[in-house]
Amino acid sequence: MSYQLELRHLKYFLAVANELHFRKAAEKLFISQPGLSRQIKELEDSLGLKLFDRHNRQVKLTHTGLYLKEELSKTLKNLEAIINHAKLLEDGNDGKLNFGYVGSAMQKIIPNLLLKFTKDHPNILFSLKEMDNNKQIEGLLSQEIDIGFVRLERIPRGLSSLPILKEPFCLVLPKNHSIDASNYKKLTQLKDEHFILFDPEYSASYYEKVMTIFDDHGFTPIISHNTIHAGSIYKLVENNFGVSIVPKSLINENNSNLKFIELHKIKQRTTLYAIWNKDNRNPILDKFIPLL
């Protein structure tokens, strides 16, 4: 029997493929379980393919089904993006660009890029979300975001990157600390202090690079707190819970409760990268990348 293949069949297939459970998939789709089973049977008959193995209430994707799931997920994501872009055009906008970023990128890098880009493209909408490095990778692969700004040494296959800023690290101290730029000699002066650092979840490679700074100075730091937000680090330092090391671009000159000492004599540097998905079909992304 031949059935007309419709978009809903593909959405129903992906729901079951993701849940591997007909009842749970039916609940998410707000349809009955028998109705969903019938739609999947129509899809398999129409394509002449077996997509699922069903044994004693267990549902598994066949090799063919797994391939179809991976390819359809990409295709439908692109279709959704195309439709959303068309809606923006209908509303008088040229498009939308979704950003993910680590906090340091918002100090100067992203604002400057947006100012330059909007001069030639004034009708673009922007969505900006602070995210740790791993969340950005996930968002780029799923195309929930279009471009990210990360501190990572390696990226997954399928993503492109461009170094934006290579910079030294800085010490962050409370304003009443006895050490300042005039009497700072080396990091061992702070070996008995508590350190507040970015969490390894922020970026494992970034965290390891910071730890090599301590290795080079021959001591293991006393780490009292980990966080993924610079603002949290600064609040803790302000209140004398410890000291910190951050990228130079996170220097906050407007915070009179802190003082910063640039570690320009050490070899370690940290690099901020712009990163995007090669398969992203957002036409605004193609216009933005040359600005980088």
From TrEMBL:
<dbReference type="InterPro" id="IPR005119">
    <property type="entry name" value="LysR_subst-bd"/>
</dbReference>
<protein>
    <submittedName>
        <fullName>LysR substrate-binding domain-containing protein</fullName>
    </submittedName>
</protein>
<dbReference type="Pfam" id="PF03466">
    <property type="entry name" value="LysR_substrate"/>
</dbReference>
<dbReference type="InterPro" id="IPR036388">
    <property type="entry name" value="WH-like_DNA-bd_sf"/>
</dbReference>
<dbReference type="InterPro" id="IPR036390">
    <property type="entry name" value="WH_DNA-bd_sf"/>
</dbReference>
<keyword id="KW-0804">Transcription</keyword>
<feature type="domain" description="HTH lysR-type">
    <location>
        <begin position="5"/>
        <end position="62"/>
    </location>
</feature>
<dbReference type="InterPro" id="IPR000847">
    <property type="entry name" value="LysR_HTH_N"/>
</dbReference>
<keyword id="KW-0238">DNA-binding</keyword>
<keyword id="KW-0805">Transcription regulation</keyword>
<dbReference type="Pfam" id="PF00126">
    <property type="entry name" value="HTH_1"/>
</dbReference>
<comment type="similarity">
    <text>Belongs to the LysR transcriptional regulatory family.</text>
</comment>
